Amino acid sequence: MDRLLVLVRHGQSEWNLKNLFTGWKDPGLTEQGIAEAHKAGEQLKDLKLTFDLAFTSVLSRAQKTLDIILGELGQTGLETFKDQALNERDYGDLTGMNKDEAREQFGEEQVHIWRRSFDVPPPGGESLKMTAERVLPYYKAEILPKVLAGKRTIVAAHGNSLRSLIMELEGLSPEEILKRELGTGTPIIYRLDENGGVISVQDLAD
Ligand SMILES: O=C(O)[C@H](O)COP(=O)(O)O
């Protein structure tokens, strides 16, 4: 049985382009982000992958990315579950702030820690650990059982909500997740064993 799970971060958003902390705000995709989503769909199509189920957040940048990918696969209208558990990490007081201005105000190191560490939240926001505390229960309750039942599944979400899931899937340490970046619109293909362990990972960015 093929236990297929594909994760993909949304394509570039309007606030990614403006270099603004986005979190739970809901900007759309840029033209580049739309093109990235089409390319992701084409990559999956070239690999002859199709899906039985889709999951995404309640934010439009992820939903639009998913719609474009499914369109490329001829699977528009595929059964899709949308849940805020998969939303991007909440950036709290940094939301809407320019990332370079934040670096000037708070220092390069502090901003890196807020963006990429496991358990240090941005002011008023969520740490990766706090994000995982909503992503992982949802994954284990709603997504994993369907993958283990052989439902080929795609999850279109966000840089940090996916990093929290990847940390679990790949058994990464807090030190290792610090270095893990996800490109926009780049599918990562996992095949799982009967216990949900990872047999193989194929990052289409590579
Ligand atoms: O929410 C955001 O600002 C981005 O989607 C992710 O930001 P980060 O890459 O700085 O964590």
From TrEMBL:
The active site is at 10 (tele-phosphohistidine intermediate), 88 (proton donor/acceptor). GO terms for molecular function: phosphoglycerate mutase activity. Keywords: Gluconeogenesis, Glycolysis, Isomerase. Its EC number is 5.4.2.11. The record marks 158 as: Transition state stabilizer. SMART domains: PGAM (SM00855). Substrate binds at residues 9-16, 22-23, 61, 88-91, 99, 115-116, 159-160. It catalyses: (2R)-2-phosphoglycerate = (2R)-3-phosphoglycerate. Pathway: Carbohydrate degradation; glycolysis; pyruvate from D-glyceraldehyde 3-phosphate: step 3/5. PROSITE patterns: PG_MUTASE (PS00175). Belongs to the phosphoglycerate mutase family. BPG-dependent PGAM subfamily. This is 2,3-bisphosphoglycerate-dependent phosphoglycerate mutase. It comes from Roseibium sediminicola. The gene is gpmA.
